[in-house]
Amino acid sequence: MRQSLLALLAKEPAHGYELKQALEAIFGSAYPSPNIGQIYVTLGRLEKDGHVRSVGVEQSNRPNKKVYYITAAGLETLQAWAEEPTEGPRVRDEFFMKLVLAPMTGLSDRMALINRQRRHYLSLMRELGELAERTDPGDRVALLLIEGAMLHLQADLDWLERCQEELP
Amino acid sequence: MTTTPAIRAVNLVKIYQSGRGLPVPAVRGVDLTVDPGEFVAIMGPSGSGKSTLIHLLGGLDTRTSGEIWLDGKRADTLSESGWAVLRREKIGFVFQFFNLVTNMTVADNVELPALLGGASPRHARERREYLLGELGLTDRAAAAPAQLSGGEQQRVALARALANQPRLLLADEPTGNLDSRNTRDVLKLLSRVHRQGQTIVLVTHDARVAGLADRVVSLLDGEIVDDGAIVRRRGPGGTAGDVVELRG
Amino acid sequence: MASRMIGSAEGRWIRADLRARRGQALLTVLTVAGIVTALIAAATLLEDGTNPWRGLFERGRGAHIWLHTKTVPDVSALKSLDGVTDVAGPYHSAPATLAADRGRKVPISLQEAPAALPAVARPLLSEGRWLDVRHPEGVVVERSFARAIGLRPGSPFTVTGLNGATHTLTVAGLAETGDQGFYPEWAPGLAWTLRQTLTAVEPAPGRTETVTGLRLADPGLTDLIVQRAVFTLHGQVQRVTTWREVRAAMELDNRLLGLLLGLFGVAGLVAAALALANVTGGRVLTQLRDIATLKSLGFTRGQITRMLLVEHGALGLAGIALGVVAAWLITAYALGESGVTPLSPGPHAAITVGTALVVLVAVWLPAWRGGRTPPLPAVPAAPPRGRLSRLARLALLVRLPPALVLGARDAFTRRTPALLTICGVAIPMMMITIGLGCWATLDDFIRHPEGVGQAAALAVRPADLTAEETRERVMADPDVVAAYPGAELDALVPGQTRTVRTRALGTSADPYPFPVAEGRMFRDRGEAVAGQGLLDLLGARVGDRVRITIGGTPLIVRIVGRVIEPEQDGEVLSLGIDSLAAKDAVPPRFYGLVLRPGAEPGEARARLQAQGLEVAQAVNPADRLAVIRVIIVALVVVLALIGLANLLTAGALGLRDHVLDLAVLKAMGLTPRQVMATLVTGTGLLAVVGVLLGGCVGALWSRALIDLEGRHSGVGAGIGRAPTPGMLAAAIGIAIGAALLVALIPARRAARARIPVTAR
Ligand SMILES: Nc1ncnc2c1ncn2[C@@H]1O[C@H](COP(=O)(O)OP(=O)(O)O)[C@@H](O)[C@H]1O
Ligand SMILES: [Mg+2]
Fold it and tell me: Does ipTM top 0.90?
């Protein structure tokens, strides 16, 4: 979440609550709505690292609130983040462990494992599908996210199929 | 439960006699029951016998042994013509390559099954107008299939398969040749007719299509290795956050 | 009810398919129409040429029965007879003698005719004008008679009545009639005169005859009505002639022509059937995917077969209908002017029904195959990937350009269609070659008349002279090389109720140069040669003895050879005149004259006629067969069309198979020109193979086939000639050129077009 907060602050200074609202506005329902405490904790860490600094603003009938600014160091970090290639999703290594190891123990056979996993993926897919249907068609970001998730799932399913074919 | 299954296959076997005389078992003892209104996806690696199975269920190919019951009636003993008559009344078929009749217009393609089923030309036309309207293809009625995009062709093929309000819709990789946008159009259509109570058995590689199904049957080397419902873990509702996790 | 509804689904598909291939459908219709037209036109010409009676009789509304009575009969009684629609006459008729040139006397029959042409039994005026009361001396002479005597419109001539008075008349016009046979087979000759002229020539009423014609509704009732008429007229009737006798007198029984025509008809039909089967088969092949789709929708096997049968059969039947109409128009307008009557209903129906059956059978096979298509359209429509055929490898070995190699590979990738294409070209080509063989055979008849037994171009009858005088006069002519004494007699042969012609010509020591095809010429008395027809009739072979009776005298002859015999369907026995009994042989009835090579028979004839001799000129069988030339040309055109239609089908099919390949070829860097060359080679190679094959087989067969025809027509084997090498080379060259052109058209279009990378 650090980078997304830094990115928002690079656009304009803001206080914690404004950041939460901005995140919701951009990612909509596709994004798990972060709670305000989490945001303040993250901002505190960023301040400690010197990526942001805060200025207190007086308010008449309420306690002071802090407005956060991005620092030069923060901008640099953000720049580096944007430029570095993003790691791809990793293979479901836990399932692969099960697949390779479980038959040795005699606890479960591979076929059953794969079938169970497939059904699981399909039910995930079904949920994604239903979610996509419920999502407002204008909400591009959300729909793209869902589509991405679906494609990942499709890849996982294809990989399952390969496992089923290749492993005895 | 005493409802008659829409399809019941018992110990279905298909062995192809290849050119050199070596028998190729494509389907090896499949037992499958599909209830009315159910949506079953058949998955499996290529060469696992999916197409063969669905062709057997639609009578497009003859079984080597086993039984096929459609709507409680034995169908595997029917002659080729018997199957043809059964198909025209009770089964709609959709193929991967659309298979519209090339020299007929879209309208004619969709009207054909109704005419074949004995409907009057007027009734056939009304049904066609309704179906094409549903699919947003009204303005393409006079076009030749070759002038349509793949997705449009496949939607026309679906309309044609549904023209006679068949008890059973069989489809063999209906989205196998489509890009993701066209796939989405076809998917919407499938889920809609399914919601209206259409029984569907569909072969697919596409998890999105399979995700629509109530049940998935996995084939491997001509045998069913898995057959079970796709359960919904949560009730309806929830947001993307429930399924999408942004790292960071 | 259901079937009507299902019919509408089939109808929908048929309509759509026809709309999608209008050009091809039209070509099919035209091909079939061409064949039917050619067949009907050929049969019409044949019928007219060999049976002129029907045309004359129909056009002149002839009378089926002619009653000859001494006095005027009761016309109203005759008219009221059941089955009689019209009555011609009664007309007076009187015999007289015509004084021909050189004092020759020829009997003639003068018959009264009204000044206005009658509605029934109307003479058909062919030259000059009809009778005119202002010119009572003008008479109209029957054409064949006038020809034989040498009368023309305007020529004066004298007739002598029975009372010995001589009258000078002039020829006003010439007319034909179906009411009496041609002169000299039907004698005496006929002239129509006005009543007053007739009375002038024969004033005595007792010596005239009255003739009355009856036209019937149903010619089949002739015998019955003759009986009734004779009964009605109470013994007044002296003589009756019927249309059957007239027809028999006119008919030219030409089996050779009939057989040749039959051969072409059958060949044309086979070629048409092949073309149709090819077109239908090709279409079905390109449609297998669609047909499978239809089956997956619930079309049954029977429905598909029926649908294809209806579609393609309907095209064929439409072609037949069009052909019948076209043939009707041709006979009515183009040939009508030359006096050809439409074909009689029997052969007409036979041709129509025959072609319809052939069409249905030809279409049925591919339709049936289409019906057996499995209902699985999933089978990808990829063309079979060609391994390099042996031919293509050979092409590579001899370093041919790549386009040719690829084309050669394509040509034989699909075996069955390749074979069909080759046959589709080879069969018409073979028939064309055989047609050329017929042509060459006719040319040979004309060039070498002695080869068909017509070494003697002229035959002279002594008329009033003695045989010796005649011989001297003809031998004095500079053009005459030899004169063979001859006689023609009818002989009874054992086991036959009818007689056969016996021709004595030349002597055993100096025989007439008969064209001996088998065995040898007669050398002794009691030896004879025979035509194939006679051998067949008697079941005899060369070397057999036969016993015949000539004029009551039995005669045993040994048949020592077979000759080419174009007359009497080959049922002629030829021997030396010294083999006959003296009463039949002396004096010779005529002399057969062999002219010096290069002499003009017409001129020699005129010279001899001027010396008071009766001279007949031999009719070359080729002249009688002239109509076959027209038929050959027409059939060659139709056959060529059929071949081209087959090629077009093959081209379209080949193109469809190679759409995918073409994209690859272009991507590999073949220029459009090379692509075109590839495609042209693909179809052209098959065409060339077909043309060469058809040409060779045709050339080899034409001789044997024509000889076979000759054998069956009684003329005998030995007349057949292969087409001349020049003719054959030209035909093959033209055919190959046309084939390549036809292959070029679709190839050009394909090479230019942008080709999609995927099939669908
Ligand atoms: N017509 C045929 N003749 C011979 N073998 C066939 C035929 N059709 C399919 N097969 C074989 O049967 C097996 C199953 O094929 P198919 O049902 O098409 O598999 P899928 O659709 O799952 O890819 C494959 O091994 C295939 O090679
Ligand atoms: Mg398949």
Answer: no
